[in-house]
Amino acid sequence: MKYQVIYSSNTGNTEKVAKAIFSAIPGFEKDIVRFEEKTIPVDADVYFVGFGIHKGACPMILLDFLSELHHKKIVIFGTCGLGSDESYYRCLEDEVKAWIADDSEWIGSFMCQGKMPINVRNKYVEMLGQGNDPKIEKMIHNFDLAMTHPDNNDLQNATAFVEKMIRKIEEY
Ligand SMILES: Cc1cc2nc3c(=O)[nH]c(=O)nc-3n(C[C@H](O)[C@H](O)[C@H](O)COP(=O)(O)O)c2cc1C
Fold first, then answer.
1. Where in the sequence is the domain holding 31, given as residue range(s)?
2. Which of ligand 1's atoms lies nearest the C-alpha of 113?
3. Which of 70-79, 129-138, 157-166 shows the lowest mean pLDDT across its residues?
4. Residue 21 sits in the same domain as residue 103
5. Considering only CA atoms, which residue is closest to atom 15 of ligand 1?
């Protein structure tokens, strides 16, 4: 079984998770490529496809790539600013899953929180006092919680997730 990890990452959060995932894949039949940098090999059996969420979505260019992977096993992973909201995670995962070709097979998904650039917080602060303070304060609180992510616990969860995925793939 040959494994390919590919990921898109603007600020390095998904890259951290991608590297943890890559390390957790056993054996030597594996490769990791940053989507923006190289042509992606299409000869692997299993693809771990990773992305950071921007404006509510996975980058379109990565979704296009995903839709062109045929007869592969696909594992999705990603990071996003909002944390501790499993239903939000499931929603993002489902949107990405919908792009998997019918002849490929979704194996599983993993999401965790990722820190955001400080200008995002500055914008929230500017919005205070304009009539929706409880919501804005919640967003600032979430921003502050995200500051340390992905943390060691997220990376350990990513490792455990890979072990689960490998077991699932081996059972096929
Ligand atoms: C311009 C911008 C838009 C973002 N939009 C969202 C969003 O809609 N939902 C969300 O949960 N997080 C959002 N985030 C947070 C990113 O998903 C988060 O920081 C992620 O970990 C980035 O991953 P990367 O560093 O691998 O690109 C946004 C961040 C930026 C900078």
1. 3-114+150-171
2. 21
3. 129-138
4. yes
5. 81
